[in-house]
TrEMBL record:
<feature type="domain" description="Cytochrome c">
    <location>
        <begin position="368"/>
        <end position="460"/>
    </location>
</feature>
<feature type="binding site" description="covalent">
    <location>
        <position position="384"/>
    </location>
    <ligand>
        <name>heme c 3</name>
    </ligand>
</feature>
<protein>
    <submittedName>
        <fullName>Membrane-bound aldehyde dehydrogenase, cytochrome c subunit</fullName>
        <ecNumber>1.2.5.2</ecNumber>
    </submittedName>
</protein>
<keyword id="KW-0677">Repeat</keyword>
<keyword id="KW-1003">Cell membrane</keyword>
<keyword id="KW-0732">Signal</keyword>
<feature type="domain" description="Cytochrome c">
    <location>
        <begin position="91"/>
        <end position="194"/>
    </location>
</feature>
<feature type="binding site" description="covalent">
    <location>
        <position position="254"/>
    </location>
    <ligand>
        <name>heme c 2</name>
    </ligand>
</feature>
<dbReference type="InterPro" id="IPR036909">
    <property type="entry name" value="Cyt_c-like_dom_sf"/>
</dbReference>
<feature type="binding site" description="axial binding residue">
    <location>
        <position position="385"/>
    </location>
    <ligand>
        <name>heme c 3</name>
    </ligand>
</feature>
<feature type="domain" description="Cytochrome c">
    <location>
        <begin position="236"/>
        <end position="345"/>
    </location>
</feature>
<keyword id="KW-0560">Oxidoreductase</keyword>
<dbReference type="GO" id="GO:0020037">
    <property type="term" value="F:heme binding"/>
</dbReference>
<keyword id="KW-0408">Iron</keyword>
<keyword id="KW-0349">Heme</keyword>
<dbReference type="GO" id="GO:0047113">
    <property type="term" value="F:aldehyde dehydrogenase (quinone) activity"/>
</dbReference>
<dbReference type="InterPro" id="IPR009056">
    <property type="entry name" value="Cyt_c-like_dom"/>
</dbReference>
């Protein structure tokens, strides 16, 4: 009788072992589970043979069956919890991917020809040169060791791991308006990327800007340190647009003038500024200097595709913003941004743009087709842009009505002539737009590019351009 009882305990313990092994399997790869065939084998080879006779045979089978049922239920429930957790994490990563796109992180944190997000891109600023850091989850050269709180601190306060202050070329003064949930979703996406071991070049900031401790005082003056708060008197579209423009898209970092500390002049928000040799134009609702006379559809097209008929095409940093960020946003989000921008109080600063139908008045003799500028335009530009500015091969070549050809200083026009222009758009990984203009920096002298710029300004906008050979030379040197 004693031996029979021990054999029955061994059988029960076998079921317990199976439960334990299956649980460990599930924890290891979240795929293992106790199959019914496992229990059938135990029931017939162990339990049934052991409890096939005697007064306790019914009890033994009941114990075995109960354990089997418990194990299956435990495994199914455990797998359900694990799969739910996986699904929740996948959803968080997908959300983070969209937010990272809206925040345009890839553009700034990718060197020319480099691995996305691995850093190394150069930024030339008035106080020195900065290089974007690696934000892949590499633990030695990236952000792989960042905790949630450390990542939030970097995004909100501009203070990185170990208390190291970041320079405000990283737009944390805008990201500080992001919700904690959105910041951690961005972190989840970045941590899902393949780690890349890449060390960015050392920064070269002039004294005293090389002293990071000075950022303590700078932050007190310039970082609001507040989260975005919806305005209950405004529509949901306006509030969503405000969040995208002010926080995620950080449009003010380029389009808002800066003061003596290089902090944003928020009293003149979005009224235009020059950054890294490019003018970020006035995007307030002013009808002459801003976008006040743009229709919603024109502005939506420009943001989503980088081109709007009669308004020109995006180039330089704006083309990058379209390629890496804006073109990948949903239509609803683009529309929300437009709703918000159209409601921004007007500020009459910057470049006035004449409507496209009023172009080519040519009041300036320099705009004559027989002038040196006219001959240069005919040789280098006319075949693509045409004398009407309508563009020949593609709408992206249309320049009539663009702010670039209406600015008497010709700031962006000179940069485009020197650098060329590229705008690429993908939809679901498939290229849909490739707009390209070559550089004329090597084929033309500084004096020729100055003459050509003034011709373009006079011909397409009727303004007297002030571009000089010295200006072109300085822009070329700053490349």
């Amino acid at each position: 009788m004693q031996m029979l009882f021990l054999r029955r305990l061994e059988s029960v313990s076998g079921v317990y072992r199976l439960v334990w092994d299956s649980w460990r399997m599930r924890e290891r790869d979240r795929k293992g589970c106790i199959s019914m065939s496992d229990f059938t084998e135990i029931a017939h080879q162990d339990s049934c043979s052991t409890f096939s006779s005697g007064p306790l045979s019914g009890l033994g089978r009941a114990i075995t069956t109960g354990l089997a049922t418990f194990a299956i239920a435990t495994c199914v429930a455990g797998n359900g919890v694990a799969h739910a957790a996986d699904s929740a994490h996948d959803a968080l990563v997908e959300k983070g991917k969209y937010l990272t796109t809206a925040a345009d992180c890839e553009s700034c944190h990718t060197a020319k020809g480099g691995v996305p997000f691995a850093g190394g891109r150069e930024f030339k600023l008035p106080m020195g040169v900065l290089y974007a850091p690696n934000i892949t989850p590499d633990k030695e050269t990236g952000i792989g060791e960042y905790t949630d709180d450390e990542f939030v601190s970097a995004m909100w306060d501009g203070v990185g791991r170990g208390g190291r202050h970041l320079y405000p070329a990283f737009p944390y003064t805008s990201y500080t308006k992001l919700s904690r949930d959105d910041v951690l979703a961005i972190k989840a996406y970045l941590f899902s990327l393949k780690p890349v071991h890449a060390v960015s070049p050392p920064n070269n900031m002039r004294f005293p800007f090389s002293q990071r401790w000075l950022m303590v005082g700078w932050n007190m003056l310039n970082n609001p340190g507040r989260r975005f708060e919806p305005d209950s008197s405004r529509s949901p579209e306006w509030n969503r647009g405000a969040y995208l423009v002010e926080a995620l898209g950080h449009c003010g970092e380029c389009h808002t003038p800066r003061g003596w500390t290089y902090g944003l002049k928020n009293s003149r928000a979005l009224s235009g500024e020059t950054m890294q040799g490019w003018k970020a134009y006035n995007i307030t609702s002013d009808p002459k200097q801003g976008i006040g006379d743009w229709s919603e559809s024109e502005l939506e097209a420009y943001l989503a595709t980088g081109h709007s008929d009669g308004r020109g095409s995006a180039s330089g940093p704006m083309a990058e913003a379209v390629s890496y960020s804006l073109s990948r946003l949903t239509h609803d989000d683009i529309h929300a941004m437009v709703v918000y921008l159209k409601a921004v109080p007007p500020i009459a600063d910057g470049v006035g743009v004449a409507p496209a139908p009023e172009q080519a008045k040519m009041p300036d003799p320099a705009a004559s087709a027989n002038s040196e500028g006219g001959r240069l335009f005919a040789g280098a530009c006319k075949s693509c842009h045409t004398l009407s500015g309508a563009g020949r091969q593609t709408n992206y070549a249309a320049i009539a009505g663009a702010a670039t050809v209406s600015d008497p200083e010709g700031t962006n026009l000179v940069r485009i002539l020197l650098d060329g222009s590229v705008l690429d758009i993908e939809k679901n990984g498939i290229p849909t737009v490739h707009a390209f203009m070559p550089s004329f920096g090597l084929s033309h002298t500084d004096a020729e590019l100055a003459v050509l710029s003034n011709y373009v300004l006079g011909h397409f906008s009727g303004v007297r351009g002030t571009v000089t050979a010295d200006q072109v030379r300085d822009a070329r040197t700053a490349q």
